[in-house]
Amino acid sequence: MPGSVAHDAGPQSYLVAGGGENMWFGEDALQFVWKRMSGDVSLAADIRWIGTGGNAHRKACLLIRQSLDPKSAYADAVVHGDGLTSLQCRQVPGGVTREIQSNVTAPRRIRIEKQGDFVSMSIAGENEPLHAAGGSFKIRFMEPFFVGLGVCAHDNKVSETAVFSNIEITSGGARTAGEPVLESTLEIVPIASGDRRVVYHTRSRIEAPNWSRDGSHLLFNRDGRICRLPVEGGEPVLIDTGFATGINNDHGLSPDGTQL
Questions:
Q1: 46-73 pLDDT, tens per residue?
Q2: Tens digit of each residue's pLDDT (9 = 90 or more) over 96-112
Q3: How many beta carbons lie within 10 A of that of residue 254, not counting itself?
Q4: What is the DSSP track for 23-92?
Q5: CA 207 to CA 197: how far, in whole Å?
Q6: 141 — alpha (psi -120 to 50), left (phi > 0) or beta?
Q7: Residue 32 to residue 16: CA distance in whole angstroms
Q8: Is the CB of residue 103 less than 8 Å from the CB of residue 198?
């Protein structure tokens, strides 16, 4: 299904329509609107689908590709039709695509950023600034590479359209002020796939995550205390450890899961 691109009336806005069977595994089929760039870059945009329905795996993405070959190495920040939002990466031509799933569904705005050999994603909901989604991939792009907007219908018999608005593309990476900020991300990694899912992200130091005995929640250290977090995500709950307020590094659970 042929694609198209049109400049919309909105601020820095484009309508991108694309077909394509998929962007996954070892090769991609999509509509890609691009420019050549080098060095550190960032690309941010508000993303909105036109129409409802369609395949839940249709993809609208901010994309960095080594080449225009379908099997090219790439990284993208992508919003799926069902709202799933991920940082995806194919590190070598024809290789397996990996992803880090965000714990936020259908954000208003996303950003992909390349700094050196690392790519990361930021997200923002309504009325909030962009913030790190958590996690990154290491991938080396030879210069120049391709940066732009992509749409894949996940069905090569139809065309899907997304609006990319308030587009900001920056050479030299994202324009952030001040010193770097400590960020911590807690992820779940299924052994079979190697893909990752962000459960919790914070601008504080966390360490030593452990599974509960029943697999329903995670335990981790923060500020000398231990917190409990459901595996589905949410806000951590402080565990009462009495006098023990200087807890550090590893901890263990009793066989019945009732004691730390």
A1: 999 999 889 999 999 999 999 999 999 9
A2: 999 999 999 999 999 99
A3: 9
A4: EETTEE--EEEEEEE-SSEEEEEEEEEESS-S-TT-EEEEEEES-SSTT--EEEEEEETTS-EEEEEE-S
A5: 17
A6: beta
A7: 8
A8: yes
* Closest to 221 measured CA to CA, from 254, 250, 241: 250
Q: Which residues contact 149 (CB under 8 A, 6 or more apart)?
A: 5, 14, 16, 32, 33, 34, 45, 60, 61, 62, 63, 164, 167
Burial of residue 246 (number of CB atoms within 10 Å: 0-12, 13-18, 19+)? exposed
| 193: amino acid identity, one letter | S
DSSP string, 194-257: --EEEEEEESS--EEEEE-TTSSEEEEEETTEEEEEETT----EE---TT-----S-----TTS
Which residue ranges form the domains of the chain, and what is each CATH number?
Answer: 4-171 (2.60.120.200), 205-260 (no CATH)
For residue 81, the tally of other CB atoms under 10 A from its CB is: 20
CB 97 within 8 Å of CB 116: no
Residue showing tokens 């550190």: 40
Contact 201/122 with Cβ under 8 angstroms?
A: no
